Amino acid sequence: MPNPPFTTTPLFSIEQHKFLLEQLPDPVAVYTGLRIVYANPAAAAIVGARSPEQLIGRAVLDFVPPEHRAPEAPGIPSQLKPNAGEPAIEHWLRLDGYRVTVQTKSFPILYAGEPSVLMICKDMTAEIGYEQSLRRNEQLLLNVVQYSPEAIVLHADDIVYYANDATVRMFRAFSASELIGRNIYDFIHKDFHEAGKRRLSEAKERAGTRLGFTVHKFTRLDGETFDAEVSSVVIENADDRFAGRYIQTVLRDVTERIAREKELLDHSQRFERLLKFLPEPIVITDHGAIIYCNKSTAKLVRASSKDEIIGKSIFDFIHSDHHQDSVRVVRDVMRTYDATPFQERKIICCDGSVISVEISSIRIDHYNGKSVTLSVMRDLTERKEAEELLIRSEKLSVIGQLAAGVAHEIRNPLTSLRGFTQLLRRELDPARFYYIETMLSELDRMTYIVNDFMSLSKPQLVAYRNHELADTLRAVLLVIESEALLHNIAVHWDHRGGLPPVRCDEHRMKQVFLNVLKNAIDAMPDGGAIHLKMEAVGDELLVRIRDEGPGMPKELIERIGDPFFTTKSDGTGLGLMICHRIVEAHNGSIRFSSAPGAGTTVDILLPIATET
How many CA atoms lie within 13 A of 457 on its CB side? Predict the structure, then answer.
């Protein structure tokens, strides 16, 4: 094929500048008769050749895409003609089949004495690809804004310049042209004009920072009003048509959501009013956090108000012994709509005390838009006290039956034995009186035990009257004074005069004080002190008796008053049990507190007399 026609005289011979062309970073190739006769390394690289030698002798048309080749046989494509250095954008085929976009400049030259064409190229693939990608991204961005499900408005100087499809639908327009060019306050409800102006002023002051969503009321083209969340941001303006800056505003129609939230709020308020006055303690939790409780709950855990409970974790009140089981219940209850069976739990009250309750939980949906756990509690304190009272009554019943038998079978023989023992004492040698006295002492002790049984087995005649309890305690102290001195025990009485009277049976209260004081003396065989205190506490009179004995652990303190429980080697365990019965018959209470090495304290509380 003939060489391309020249329109100018060849500029130079390539052989003279071959070294310089080898060093150029731009691709350079020379072809003669449409066959490559020279290529530098950069030219080989751009078409995917391993070396320039791989290109020598190949037809230039091998690198021209088919659609760019001239259909007429003798002609050549325009990009292969010398263009006297005028740049042209062209497409080339690489050896691996991929295409590259290049900018070419062609010059007529001499190569090996033959007229040829020198072509200098620059790879434009990445640059043109970037521009194409940028244009695609711009179009994609426009599509995203145009077809966004959220209403987007572009305005400046309060005039609408752009509205996407969602905005057109929101304001019930036929097209964006019904909105563009109008003042934005034509669409903002008049009650919110001032608020809208403040928000737009704030957006301008904080240019580039999108304001958080707030709710305004708007008016559609058909006159209907609706609520929408609004957020605005200033966008820098490159358009010189107006001095202001564009403001992009996003709107979300929240009319249905607000109505639904109001309905949920009304439902929750009605639900809370229902729970508020229920006698059962009710707690509502969200993932373990307490979000509601009624007054009964505050009363149960001894809180001053509900605010002391709400916001805390339910596990702040559940005893650590039950944490693991409670975590499992909280997890499982949200998987079903069935209520859990009532389970016993220990609750830590706000004052640190521990009580036993039964708890049942159930899942509740749509409480302020959430699925939560509602728990009902039952205070077991009275039930447990009733159970303990029943157990104690049953024990007393058994003791009473036993006492009746003992009284019948043992008391008369004991009387006979004591009488005959006294007769023997008259006839025996006085040197043997020691044994007789021991026998009489043991018989008296057996009689004392039988009498304790008798006091449990039959009702006692009680005469209640208003009485100064200090006089009763003073009389008892006179009785035990000699025994206390014998054991080197001092009695300290913190007595304040003017104490109110109590309604009681004086003789039975003497029995209580005598029993407690004798126990205190027995607890200090090596001496010590007994501290007495009497004072009014509310509507009750407190009598406190504290010894300096070795004390007792908690597990023994809890058993004081049980039938036949005693820490003394020669005791029956009936004395304190009788004390319990006497104090309870007076509508009072008796409490024991102790710790190893800290002595024992007995608090006796009796109601103050209301009649004078």
Answer: 17
What number is the average pLDDT over the span 506-524? Answer: 82
pLDDT of residue 243: 46
Q: Following CA atoms 301, 303, 305, 308 in sequence, which dihedral angle do they give, to the nearest 10 degrees?
A: -100
Strand order in the sheet with 289-293: 289-293, 282-286, 370-379, 354-367, 343-348
Q: What distances in angstroms separate CA 567 from CA 517, 523, 553, 572, one per listed residue? A: 15, 10, 12, 9
Q: Are 536 and 508 in contact (CB under 8 A)?
A: no
SS3 504: strand
To the nearest 10°, the Cα dihedral for 286, 292, 294, 300? Answer: 60
Q: Which two tokens stand for residue 67?
A: 């659609």
pLDDT digit string (tens) for 6-41?
Answer: 444 444 555 556 666 677 788 888 888 888 888 888
Pairing between β-strand 282-286 and β-strand 246-253 as defined by DSSP bridges: unpaired
Cβ atoms 75, 99 nearer than 8 A = no
Q: What is the rounded distance in angstroms from the CA atom of residue 471 to the CA atom of residue 579?
A: 19
Which residues contact residue 292 at a Cβ distance below 8 angstroms, ignoring those fewer than 6 apart?
272, 275, 282, 283, 284, 310
Distance between CA atoms of 153 and 515, rounded to whole angstroms?
A: 92
Give the number of C-alpha atoms closer than 13 A to the C-alpha of residue 258, restricted to the C-beta side.
Answer: 12
Segments in 217-311 forming alpha helices (H): 255-276, 295-300
Identify whether the C-beta of residue 602 lies closer than 8 Å to the C-beta of residue 588: no
Which residues are bridge partners to 183 per DSSP?
159
The DSSP call for residue 4 is P
CA torsion sign for 322, 327, 332, 333 is positive
Q: Find how far residue 160's CA is from the centre of its chain.
A: 47
- The gap between the terminal CA atoms of the chain, to the nearest Å, is 143
Tokens of 575: 């004395």
Contacts 24+ apart (CB under 8 A), 207-212: 207/234, 207/236, 207/245, 208/233, 208/234, 208/236, 209/233
What proportions of the chain, in percent to the nearest 5, are helix, strand and coil? 40, 25, 30
Quote the Cα angle for 389-394-395, to 5°.
95
SS3 38: strand
Of 257, 246, 251, the residue nearest 171 (C-alpha): 251
Neighbour-count burial of 358, counting CB atoms closer than 10 A to its CB (0-12 exposed, 13-18 middle, 19+ buried): middle
Question: How far is 394 from 606, CA to CA, in rounded Å?
Answer: 25
For residues 113 and 301, give the distance between their C-alpha atoms in angstroms, rounded to a whole number.
110
74-125 pLDDT tens trace? 445 555 566 555 677 777 888 888 888 888 888 888 887 788 888 888 877 7
Q: How far apart are CA 333 and CA 359, in angstroms?
A: 13
Angle between helices 381-406 and 433-457 in degrees, nearest 10? 130
How far, in Å, are 5, 57, 175 from residue 80 at the CA level? 11, 16, 52
| pLDDT given for residue 445 in this prediction | 62
- Please name the residues in contact with 48: beta carbons below 8 A apart, sequence gap of 6 or more: 94, 95, 96, 98
Paired sense of beta strands 528-537 and 489-495, if any: parallel
The SS3 call for residue 64 is: coil
C-alpha 94: how far from its chain's center?
A: 64
